[in-house]
Design goal:
With 827 residues, the protein is an alpha+beta fold. The protein is built from 26 helices and 24 strands. Among the domains are: 34 residues, no CATH class; 202 residues, no CATH class; 122 residues, no CATH class. The strands form four sheets. Strands 1, 2, 3, 4, 5, 6, 8, 9, 10, 11, 12 and 13 form a twelve-stranded antiparallel beta sheet that branches. Strands 16, 17, 18, 19, 20, 21 and 22 form a seven-stranded mixed beta sheet that branches. It has a three-stranded mixed beta sheet with strand order 7-14-15, with no helix packed on it.
């Protein structure tokens, strides 16, 4: 240690002069630095955006108390949110209230819901967030897996608002919602991503967009927005490059006490909602589906359990829109209360009630926008429709509010169809001035049908197949049973009854299935504490009716099932459509007599003739579905028989023969020159070509051929894809074998056939989202079968063109041969 010390000391002495120089240099730099040194100011506290309440909600504010108090200050809108309502489940529902014609291809109407989101308002530091909450995946909070469910289903933030003030008592939080409701927030917009792409939407034009109204009610807030978008290809008025829509945003507080849900069963038709339940002890989560229904609880549970009729604690009440014409109100009320009898089947009396709107004296605050009131709205619009939407709690399926929408011009549709479909057998329908009583009866059951949707029922397209075709000509049967087993089918009129049939009912009515479905969904089952505990009883109710077509549910989505079709009646489409076409032929011959001869103008004649072609097309379409048809009979494994069974070969052959005779023959009676020469200057032949080609294309479709290829595997005696193609060739080209001249209608049809065969040769399946993309066309039999049929046809045409034919037919055959060659050898 001494050696180290001595060396260090000597080193210090040796370097003293250098240290002195270094010290001088250091002092110079210090002096210089002191001159230029800037002292950082003390940090300022960030300015808060939160102001005094009175400086935000000024004395000029227009305030509307309710769920949240809504304030309008100059051009700004504010929500004053009670802190007690933060983190409470609410529903944000977006609807189109006004829209341009043909938006969405004409499949979107005023009142159409565009989105529905479960939300909560949450505070985060100095902000209020709207969080989108989901009940698609659930688990009890007490279970460890609930942590994983939350972590793997993180809730997105829809919007973030700065807190701008607190109420004087600090119980409420104020935020500015102007930007949220006046800008293009995609998830509450009425313009979908597909529409934006189709119409080349560039964006919202804020200079032409604004908040129309904002109102607060005890349980909901309603906002009306007028939005205008810049669009290069709008659906109408293309030169304007503009799409304007009016949106209705509803925010609804959901019930604090949850209703016990009821598990759905696909054998009974209900609107549903689904959840993945992670409470299950199984090896996977349970996918649970619940029906959507109103909360009906008996006032006297003991009497109800004994089987007595009991009033519900809270009945379903519909108010009549104050805008409804006085003469129509009784029919709307009758339509609503038509459901009282089915509810009695479920043990409830006075379960659904219709009321006139209260007067200003009775309730000065009454508004159809208030979600405490369900209303049948009467809309002054040229739209021919009625809809029955409802709002339900996504946690349980409880329906909490509904507005039925009736559009003024809808009765015109029913008048026209009443005339066209029943006029042959029903003299009272042969007029443009249908009696008020008959129109009222139609309106009554249209309203009842839409109320049925609002009660939770989808369309039951199988109900019209429950009755034998001949029963529709029986007055006693139709007066008792109506024209379908359910009002929820699209079975509007009895088009089967023939002239001379006595006492027949022509207009639909409630059916036995409706009583059955209401009882299944709404009857309370005593002493059960969970949805699972109800299943045995619910299953037994279904098994008691199994096998009876009156109680069968047929899905609207079953486009392949001939027993579940829209607008049809009877259990045999060939018989029913034969009767329908006989009646339509009579109507076509007398259409001018019942219209233009009376009015002295052709407007109604032209309109009704166009709709007559539509009726003809529907009758044809009902038969088409039998070809490649598959019956769907939903069952559980403890029931006998298959769920899916192909239509018999005999029935499909009968359908094909019927179509060749009625759909593809030249339409001598349908092309009524007395009508056309007074309503159209041209287009007679092409008009009919279009309706024929539609059914031809439907028959020669990938999905139908695919089902027939599957049928070949199921059994050798089934109707096959080759049978379809061969029968079509022989029927469409029967003039070739008969060495007969071909009419202009048939020439058009035959060219449509070749074009469709070319489509089958050259195209692939394009998915429509309906499940029809289930096989690989190029590796299937399709191309081989089509090629074989075209080669056979070419050989026939080459021989036939040399026969004793007129010039048009020879030229036609030459053209068809050339077209076929192009299909077989495109090069």
């Amino acid at each position: 240690m001494r050696k180290i010390f001595i060396l260090t000391t000597l080193a210090g002495f040796l370097f003293v002069p250098n240290i002195t120089v270094a010290q001088k240099e250091w002092h110079k730099r210090e002096k210089k630095n002191k001159k230029t040194e800037v002292v950082a100011p003390a940090e300022k506290k960030p300015e808060t955006t939160i102001k005094e309440y009175s400086k935000v909600i000024t004395k000029d504010a227009i305030s509307d108390p309710g769920l949240f108090t809504v304030h309008k200050v100059d051009k700004k809108y504010f929500f004053e949110i009670p802190n007690a309502l933060l983190d409470k489940d609410m529903l944000l529902v977006s609807r189109l209230s006004k829209l341009p014609s043909n938006l969405g291809g004409g499949y979107v109407n005023a009142g159409s819901e565009t989105n529905e989101q479960l939300i909560v308002w949450q505070r985060f530091q100095d902000k209020i967030l709207i969080k989108i909450k989901s009940y698609a995946a659930v688990a009890n909070d007490s279970l460890p897996i609930s942590i994983s469910v939350k972590n793997n289903n993180y809730e997105p933030t829809l919007f973030a608002f700065d807190i701008v003030a607190f109420s004087k008592d600090s119980l409420n939080t104020v935020i500015d919602v102007t930007k949220f409701y006046s800008t293009d927030v995609k998830s509450i917009s009425g313009i979908s991503s597909n529409m934006r792409e189709s119409y080349k939407v560039k964006g919202l034009d804020e200079s032409r967009s604004f908040i129309n109204t904002m109102r607060s009610f005890p349980m909901n807030i309603e906002v009306i927005q007028d939005f205008t978008y810049n669009a290069a290809k709008p659906p109408v008025l293309q030169d304007s490059e503009t799409i304007s829509v009016q949106m209705n945003q509803s925010m609804i507080l959901l019930p604090e006490k949850l209703m016990q849900p009821r598990l759905a069963d696909p054998r009974v038709g209900w609107f549903t909602m689904s959840q993945y339940d992670y409470n299950s002890e199984e090896l996977k989560s349970d996918n649970k589906t619940y029906i959507r229904r109103w909360r009906l609880e008996p006032k006297d549970p003991i009497a109800y359990a004994k089987g007595e009729l009991v009033e519900p604690i809270k009945p379903i009440v519909y108010y009549i829109d104050p805008a409804t014409p006085e003469k129509l109100r009784k029919y709307i009320k009758a339509g609503i209360e038509e459901w009282q009898k089915p509810f009695e089947t479920a043990g409830f009396k006075n379960a659904i009630i219709a009321k006139d709107p209260p007067t200003k004296e009775e309730d000065p605050d009454f508004s159809p926008e208030d979600m405490r009131y369900s209303v049948v709205r009467y809309v002054a619009s040229t739209t021919r429709n009625a809809v029955g939407p409802s709002i339900s709690d996504p946690r349980t399926g409880e329906i909490i509010e509904s507005d039925i929408i009736w559009y003024h011009n809808h009765l015109r549709s029913y008048r026209n169809r009443y005339l066209l479909e029943t006029g042959a057998a029903n003299p009272s329908a042969r007029t443009l001035n249908t009696s008020e009583e008959e129109m009222g009866e139609m309106m009554r059951f249209v309203i009842a049908h839409e109320v049925g949707h609002a009660l939770g029922f989808p369309h039951n397209m199988g109900a019209s197949c429950a009755y034998d075709v001949e029963s529709y000509r029986d007055g006693e049967f139709t007066q008792k049973n109506g024209i379908a087993a359910s009002l929820m089918d699209y079975a509007r009129f009895n088009y089967i009854a023939q002239p001379g049939d006595k006492g027949v009912r022509f207009i639909r009515q409630m059916g036995p299935y409706d009583h059955y479905a209401v009882n299944w969904g709404y009857r309370m089952i005593p002493n059960v504490t969970s949805p699972e505990a109800e299943v045995a009883t619910l299953d037994q109710w279904i098994l008691e009716k199994a096998g009876d077509p009156i109680y069968k549910y047929g899905k609207q989505s079953s486009s392949f099932d001939p027993s579940s079709q829209t607008e049809d009646i009877g259990n045999n489409a060939m018989k029913a459509s034969t009767y329908g076409l006989k009646n339509l032929q009579y109507v076509a011959a007398h259409l001018a007599e019942w219209t233009s001869d009376t009015t002295n103008n052709y407007e109604d004649l032209s309109e009704l003739y166009s709709e007559l072609l539509g009726v003809w097309g529907r009758y044809i379409g009902h038969v088409v579905t039998n070809i490649g048809g598959v019956h769907e009979d939903t069952k559980k494994p403890n029931q006998k028989g298959a769920v899916y069974s192909v239509v018999s070969k005999t029935q499909q052959q009968e359908a094909m023969a019927w179509l060749q005779e009625n759909a593809f023959a030249s339409p001598t009676w349908l092309i009524n020159m007395q009508t056309l020469q007074n309503t159209e200057y041209a287009g007679y032949t092409d008009r009919f070509r279009a309706v024929q080609a539609r059914h031809l294309n439907s028959l020669l479709s990938f999905d139908r051929i695919g089902r027939l290829m599957d049928a070949e595997v199921q059994g050798p005696n089934n109707y096959k894809a080759l049978d379809l193609l061969r029968d079509m060739r022989q029927g469409i080209w029967k003039e070739v074998s008969a060495a007969a001249n071909v009419t202009i209608y048939r020439r058009n049809l035959q060219r449509a056939y070749i074009e469709r065969m070319a489509y089958l040769m050259q195209e692939e399946i394009k998915s429509t989202g309906r499940g029809d993309d289930y096989y690989n066309v190029s590796q299937s039999d399709v191309r081989a079968l089509v090629r074989g049929e075209l080669k056979a046809l070419k050989t026939q045409l080459a021989t036939a063109k040399n026969g004793a034919l007129n010039t048009e037919t020879r030229y036609h055959y030459d053209d068809c041969i050339a077209r076929i060659e192009l299909v077989l050898d495109p090069k």
